[in-house]
Amino acid sequence: MTDGILLQVENGLARITLDRPASLNTMNFPMAARWREVAHEVTSDTAVGAVILDANGPAFCAGGDVVAMATSGSSGAEVTATAEAIHDGIRTFAEAPLPMVAAVRGAVAGGGLGLMLTADYVVASENARFVSRYANIGLTPDLGVSTLLPAAIGQRRALQLLLQDRMLSATEALEWGLVAEVVASGELVPRVEEIARFWLDGATAAFGQATRLVRAGAGRTFAENLADEAATIGAAFDTPEAKARVAAFAAASAKGRS
User: Fold this and answer.
1) InterPro entries from the entry (predicted)?
2) Residue-wise DSSP of 49-84
3) Contact in structure between 13 and 67 (CB atoms under 8 Å)
4) What is the pLDDT of residues 75-115, one digit of tens each?
5) Alpha-carbon distance 81 to 132, whole Å?
6) Is the pTM of this model over 0.90?
7) By three-state DSSP, how is residue 243 classified?
8) What is the rounded distance in angstroms from the CA atom of residue 14 to the CA atom of residue 169?
9) For residues 184 and 171, is the Cβ–Cβ distance under 8 A?
10) Which of 62, 73, 88, 256 is the most buried (most CB within 10 A)?
11) Are the C-beta atoms of residues 137 and 69 closer than 8 Å to each other?
C-alpha cells in the first residue's frame, strides 16, 4: 500500500509522488501519515542528496480531502490530527539540509500551496493554476500556508489570495515570485530532473546547507543566523569536496591572472 504517496530513491535522488489522481491528490489521513513517514525516511537517508516532489494526474494537489471529511463525519479533532501529521512532514523537510524541487501542473489549491512551498525551488507547467479557497468553505489556512506563502510572495499578496477568490495563472505566479520557472507541459519533468541533477553533480552538501540556512533564518535572531553561517562555512571548508573545489578555483584564478 502506498497510501497515496509513492517514493523512489535511486542514485542519490529521492522522487516523492503524490498519487491520488482521482481525488486531485487531496490529502486524507492515510496520505497525511504516509507524508510524515516519507519525510522522516528521506531526510534520514544519508545517501539522498536531492529531492523531487511531483504528482500523478491532472492536478498537483487540491489541499485536504474536504469531501471525505464531510461525508465521513470527521470531527474537528480528527482534522487537526491530519493537519499535524502533514505539518510534521513539512517541518522535517524544511529543516533538513536537503534541496527539494517541485514539479507543478494543473490545480494547486488550499493546503496544496503549503505542500508546494515545502520545496526550495518550484517549476510550474504553463497550465498550472493557484488558488486559496479556504475561506470559501469557512476554513482557515493550514499546511504551512500562513507562514510559507507570505515568505514566498510577501504578506500583502498572500492576503490577496487568502481574502479574495483570486486564481493566479502560471505567468502571474511567476511574476509574484510564487514559482521560480514556468515551462511548457512537456518540458516539466525534464527540467525538474535537470535541476536535481545539477545539485547532485555539484557541491551537493553545500546546496543542502544553503537551503537549511535560509529556511532556519526566518525564525531566529540575526546574531543566531550569523553564528550558524560561520560554523557551517567552517565545517564545509574542512570537507574533502570543498578542499578540492576551492583548490581548483584558486588554481583557475591564478591562471587567469598570469
Assistant:
1) ClpP/crotonase-like_dom_sf (IPR029045), Enoyl-CoA_hyd/isom_CS (IPR018376), Enoyl-CoA_hydra/iso (IPR001753), Enoyl-CoA_Hydratase/Isomerase (IPR051683)
2) -EEEEEESSS-SB-SB-HHHHHHTT--HHHHHHHHH
3) no
4) 888 888 989 999 999 999 999 999 999 999 999 999 999 99
5) 21
6) yes
7) helix
8) 29
9) no
10) 62
11) no
- Identify which of 210, 146, 194, 155 has the alpha carbon closest to the alpha carbon of residue 177: 155
Count each helix (H run) and each strand (E run) in the chain, helices first. Answer: 11, 9
Cβ density class 15-27: b for 16+ within 10 Å, e for less: bbbbbbeebbbbb
Q: Which of 54, 51, 47 is nearest to 11 (CA)?
A: 47
Query: Residue 6 forms beta bridges with which residues?
Result: 17
Cβ-based burial of 198 (10 A; exposed 0-12, middle 13-18, buried ≥19) = middle
Three cell numbers, residue 201 = 553533480
- Nearest of 94, 100, 97, 115 to residue 20 by alpha carbon: 115
| Domain covering 5-201 in this structure, CATH number | 3.90.226.10
All 3 cell numbers of residue 32? 497525511
Take residue 169 and report the three cell numbers written for it: 495563472
Q: Give the whole-angstrom CA distance, residue 243 versus residue 182.
A: 36
- Among 11, 6, 93, which Cα is nearest to 47's? 11
